[in-house]
Write a structure and sequence with these properties.
Helix content: under 10%
Order of helices and strands: HEEEEEEEEEEEEEEEEEEEEEEEEEE
Strand order of the largest sheet: 1-8-7-4-5
CATH class of the largest domain: Mainly Beta
Distance between the termini: 146 Å
Oligomer: single chain
CATH superfamily of the largest domain: Immunoglobulins
CATH topology of the largest domain: Immunoglobulin-like
CATH architecture of the largest domain: Sandwich
Radius of gyration: 36 Å
Largest sheet: 5 strands, mixed
Length: 332
């Protein structure tokens, strides 16, 4: 008899579970449905003091009908229906920007997403292993088939402390391959051999702090140039005047002139690797083969002009060759 009564009590306690119940607004955190509300940041690795864009995506619900509120560092900066994107200017390196977004649907379901953006940057500089004369103030340009050195200059700040470049990880690549042998911990420079086809070099680097996972990336496109020949006259009093090049033509006022040919932007190698081919009025001057200096004398009792030309070829790099010419005017 007692067993029958107990069974009846158990049955009575189960019955209310099946009765209709009402619920209030439901709050669903992004951590509970991490695959539903997605956020994309552009660029992927924001730099300091630049504009960044954040966009919301959800493939299971229509965001256009939702009330969306954006917060930046705790303050409401944007709100309204279907406001699925927000842009802002990042702070300086080492200063985080905290973004929070609430997405509330018509049925009361609320999604929340939070993220912090700590901007970092890396600049790329390059130098070419090409020839320029002493005291030249310009940049040595990159010749076709020449070698390049690219150096990464990162700015990573964590807790008000700048991370030394040698404590970061560098992943170097170009448009088609990675430079695995030159990538790794502390490897902030890269040596690139110029293409045999003389194509442009696009170098990319991804820099990561192994402790905080802070990341920055950058790329640089380096277009090769053709070498050049610049002629300079040797003044009997001042020597070679590098501030005043001989261009196109000049007047031969003295009995003779000494001309120096400077091979700008040829890869720095042994002087013997450059072949000099001088011509006077289209006739090769074999005595000047291999010489950077040529001496020309004014014809006696004649006036007119003569054409001087020079072709320089790098014997080790077939793409590095160029020619230039001058006209010497002379009178009796």
């Amino acid at each position: 008899m007692l067993n029958r009564i107990l069974k009846g009590i158990v049955i009575l306690t189960i019955i209310p579970v099946f009765l209709p119940i009402t619920t209030s607004a439901q709050i669903i955190k992004s951590s509970d449905f991490i695959n539903e509300l997605e956020v994309s940041v552009s660029p992927d690795y924001p730099r300091p003091n630049e504009k960044a864009y954040i966009t919301l995506y959800m493939y299971t619900r229509d965001l256009n009908s939702a009330d969306i509120t954006w917060y930046q560092d705790g303050k409401i900066v944007l709100e309204g229906k279907g406001e699925t994107s927000y842009s802002f200017k990042t702070a300086s390196a080492g200063t985080k920007t905290n973004i929070k977004v609430d997405v509330k649907f018509l049925n009361g379901v609320l999604f929340t997403k939070s993220l912090s953006i700590n901007p970092a940057s890396v600049d790329l500089v390059w130098e070419a292993n090409s020839y320029t004369p002493p005291f030249y103030k310009g940049k040595a340009l990159h010749p076709r088939q020449g070698n390049l050195k690219v150096v990464a200059m990162p700015e990573f700040v964590v807790n008000d402390k700048t991370i030394p470049p040698e404590k970061l990880i560098y992943n170097w690549s170009n448009e088609t391959k990675g430079y695995q042998n030159q990538s790794g911990y502390g490897k902030n420079s890269l040596i690139v051999e110029g293409s045999i086809l003389g194509q442009s070099n696009t170098v990319k680097v991804l820099v990561t702090d192994p402790v905080t996972n802070l990341t920055a990336q950058n790329s640089i496109k380096i277009t090769p140039t053709d070498p050049q020949i610049v002629f300079y006259k040797n003044d009997p009093y001042y020597g070679y005047i590098f501030d005043s090049a001989l261009i196109n033509s000049f007047n031969l006022t003295s009995e003779e002139v000494q001309i120096l040919a400077v091979p700008y932007y040829f890869t720095k190698e042994k002087d013997s690797d450059l072949k000099y081919n001088w011509k006077l009025n289209n006739q090769t001057i074999s005595a000047l083969t291999g010489s950077r200096i040529a001496i020309f004398k004014k014809p006696e009792s004649q006036e007119g002009w003569s054409s001087v030309s020079l072709e320089i070829t790098n014997l080790n790099r077939i793409l590095q060759q160029t020619k230039s010419s001058l006209v010497m005017n002379f009178t009796k």
